[in-house]
């Protein structure tokens, strides 16, 4: 059974940084592409970033490009999201997912999700 646990969220002032973690179990992590999405109140879940199995390929949403960095540690079965220069519009629940195919930019491209971690950026 695949289990994903996100952590690292919290309250931060605009311009600050946070590092999210997603610990995975129940799967061959090194064979799985991973992604981060976020969902603000009243909005749909949206793509943030994804990373290939070997970390060679990373893709970012335009809204976070240059500010966020996705990485992974296959020895720890963990994927990270370093978030810098945070803005109030980054406020959302952040989710990690296991990519099963497609472009990797749609919710339907992912099989499993964690419970999410809340990120709140104050102005």
Descriptive report:
- This protein has 123 residues and is mainly beta.
- Helix content is 0%, strand content 50%.
- The protein contains no helices and 11 strands.
- It has strands at residues 3-7, 10-13, 18-25, 34-39, 46-51, 58-60, 68-73, 78-83, 92-99, 110-113, 117-122.
- Strands 2, 4, 5, 6, 9, 10 and 11 form a 7-stranded mixed sheet that branches.
- Strand 4 and strand 5 (46-51) form a beta hairpin.
- It is globular, with a radius of gyration of 13 Å.
- The mean pLDDT is 96.
Structural class: mainly beta
What series of H and E elements makes up the topology? EEEEEEEEEEE
Number of helices: 0
Please report the distance between the alpha carbons of the first and last residues: 40 Å
Residue share in helix: under 10%
Instruction: Give the number of DSSP strands.
Output: 11
Largest sheet: 7 strands, mixed
Oligomeric category? single chain
Task: Offer a concise description of the structure.
This protein is mainly β and 123 residues long. The chain has no helices and 11 strands.
